[in-house]
Amino acid sequence: MRNSKIIGMGFYIPPKVVTNRDLAKLMDTSDEWIRERTGIVERHYADEGNGPASLAKIAVERALADAQLETKDLDLMIFATLSPDYTFPGSGCVLQSLMEFPHIAAIDIRAQCSGFIYSLAIADQFIKTGMYNRVLVVGAEVHSTGIEFATRGRDVTVLFGDGAGAVILGPSEDPRVGILSHHLHADGRHYNKLWVECPGCVYTPRLTQEMVTSGRWYPKMDGKFIFRHAVEGMSRVIMEALQANNYTLADLDLLVPHQANLRINQMVAKMLSIPEDKVFNNIMKYGNTTAATIPICLCEAREEGKLKPGQLVCLASFGSGLTWASSLIRW
């Protein structure tokens, strides 16, 4: 069975910057409060009228240029997002309307903060089996149109930003290079610890004035619960990936974790005794862009010279669902 590897990457961050001080004008918070609890300094918001597909278009164009490919060379698209442009159709099809894609399948994945790794695992399997040769994996989010800019929504609102990242997978000529394994998990018992309750098809009608007024259509989070389980889940799944491939922490060159909270990533690194210079974080600049965080990190890590050929790289995530996942890659 052949291996797969990432052959092109690109990302896009919208230009509008929103600082902690900007948010402090709208709710009871401060730059110090946000930095201390999350590590975030600023985030970016998309301009009005732009959804995740619009942001993804630029990231995909850059990934194609990086891989020296065109849309006609792609066999499949997988689009990870928790903030789709519309309830339906999926954002993958919306992206197809913005670019000249061939009539390839467009699959939307709803695994929230673990969406990119889940999507990467699916793409990897299609290539390993020989069904497809070039698979586009996109992670894109526009959170800014669905968060509450008031003190009631502060704990969630300060976390999120908008952005998009994309990678292209292709077959690896060297079976020792590329994606080595994926490890995907979920525990649905805690689905409502981080969720958006409304609108929902379990209600008739799906959305009411009461739901809007009471804020039930904004995301809600049990922060302490999520923090604890994120640290535990990501620590376990990183070790699972290494052990499955007969590696130890000493063999790991770079950890690229989901960017939900800088304190979570620092705690994971501390628990596993991973040196700070082996962990790539950029949440300070962008906040949590959910499914887009890891591909954005990969692009920036390469730009900064921290991601190099031959390195052993682990991707790890944790998010709503609850879901958690990891991928181990020989770059």
> What's the CATH H-level superfamily name of the largest domain?
Thiolase/Chalcone synthase
Please summarize the sheet with the most strands: 5 strands, mixed
- Count of DSSP-assigned helices: 11
Backbone CA Rg: 19 Å
What is the CATH-assigned architecture of the largest domain? 3-Layer(aba) Sandwich
CATH top level assignment of the largest domain: Alpha Beta
What's the count of strands? 13
Model regions low in confidence, pLDDT < 50 over at least 5 residues: none
The rounded distance between the terminal residues' Cα atoms is 19 Å
Question: Quaternary state, please?
Answer: single chain
- Beta-strand portion reads 15-25%
Mean pLDDT: 97
Structural class: alpha/beta
Task: Tell me what you see in this structure.
Helix content is 33%, strand content 24%. Strand 12 (312-319) and strand 13 form a beta hairpin. The protein folds into 2 domains: 3-172, Peroxisomal Thiolase, Chain A, domain 1; 178-330, 3-Layer(aba) Sandwich (Peroxisomal Thiolase, Chain A, domain 1). The strands form 4 sheets. A 5-stranded mixed β-sheet has the order 1-7-6-4-5, with helices on both faces. A 4-stranded mixed β-sheet has the order 8-13-12-11, sandwiched between helices. With 331 residues, the chain is α/β, with parallel strands linked by helices. The chain has helices spanning 20-24, 31-38, 52-67, 91-98, 115-128, 154-157, 209-213, 223-244, 262-272, 283-286, 293-303; strands spanning 3-12, 16-19, 42-45, 76-80, 105-109, 135-141, 163-172, 178-186, 194-195, 220-221, 254-257, 312-319, 323-330. The radius of gyration is 19 Å and the shape is globular. It is built from 11 helices and 13 strands.
